[in-house]
């Protein structure tokens, strides 16, 4: 665990920023008095008492050891801060570490991706950056408070995870919706289908998170069992489910790189 630190979230009342604020507080990485939030209005909204709120991002930077950038990528160029001497963690999609350093003056920059699941401390938040051991521990503590985290090799991998795990529930919800549509078109009451899908994906998530086998091993085990699920899985594979997933994720990664400028 890193030493105690003061953390500021610029854009801390947007969907992702507010989720990170909740994760940081619930995870005990910061106390309310050690957490700053900057937004354009300076409005507190539903932030807990004790959290310091300002409309002046420069005031936040001056007060904090760690600055989290959670503004829309299109608003980044309008952000005027001098973050030299600060550890900067960016969760902005598509904005490179070099661009962040050039615009903010920061020499200690980690590029990360998280998700709104941070509010429930369930996000996966990968990151990369050329940092010393103390800063690496700080990044791991901040992102680890919001779920699980891992250091990855480079920014191209962050872009993959921006598409893959950033849009919770995103692609998982798409698959649940497709399964729900299948059952509804076969006469099952929509409210029953909705109940079933919620429970199915809750139980599947718990099993995948807690069991030792990988997702691939679970699939292969079901195919080897040669039951009804095996027939369905083999039909999906033959129909090109992997190609469909690849095309969807490729499109999301391309959009990530496009919106980052």
Automatic annotation (TrEMBL):
SUPFAM superfamilies: 6-phosphogluconate dehydrogenase C-terminal domain-like (SSF48179), NAD(P)-binding Rossmann-fold domains (SSF51735). GO terms for biological process: L-proline biosynthetic process. It is found in: Cytoplasm. Keywords: Amino-acid biosynthesis, Cytoplasm, NADP, Oxidoreductase, Proline biosynthesis. Pathway: Amino-acid biosynthesis; L-proline biosynthesis; L-proline from L-glutamate 5-semialdehyde: step 1/1. Residues 155-258 form the Pyrroline-5-carboxylate reductase dimerisation domain. The keyword Oxidoreductase applies. It catalyses: L-proline + NAD(+) = (S)-1-pyrroline-5-carboxylate + NADH + 2 H(+); L-proline + NADP(+) = (S)-1-pyrroline-5-carboxylate + NADPH + 2 H(+). One of its GO terms (molecular function) is pyrroline-5-carboxylate reductase activity. Residues 6-94 form the Pyrroline-5-carboxylate reductase catalytic N-terminal domain. It comes from Alloyangia pacifica. The keyword Lipid metabolism does not apply. This is Pyrroline-5-carboxylate reductase. NADP(+) binds at residues 10-16. InterPro entries: 6-PGluconate_DH-like_C_sf (IPR008927), NAD(P)-bd_dom_sf (IPR036291), P5C_Rdtase_cat_N (IPR028939), P5CR_dimer (IPR029036), Pyrroline-COOH_reductase (IPR000304). GO terms for cellular component: cytoplasm. Belongs to the pyrroline-5-carboxylate reductase family. Signal peptide: none annotated. The lineage of its organism: Bacteria, Pseudomonadati, Pseudomonadota, Alphaproteobacteria, Rhodobacterales.
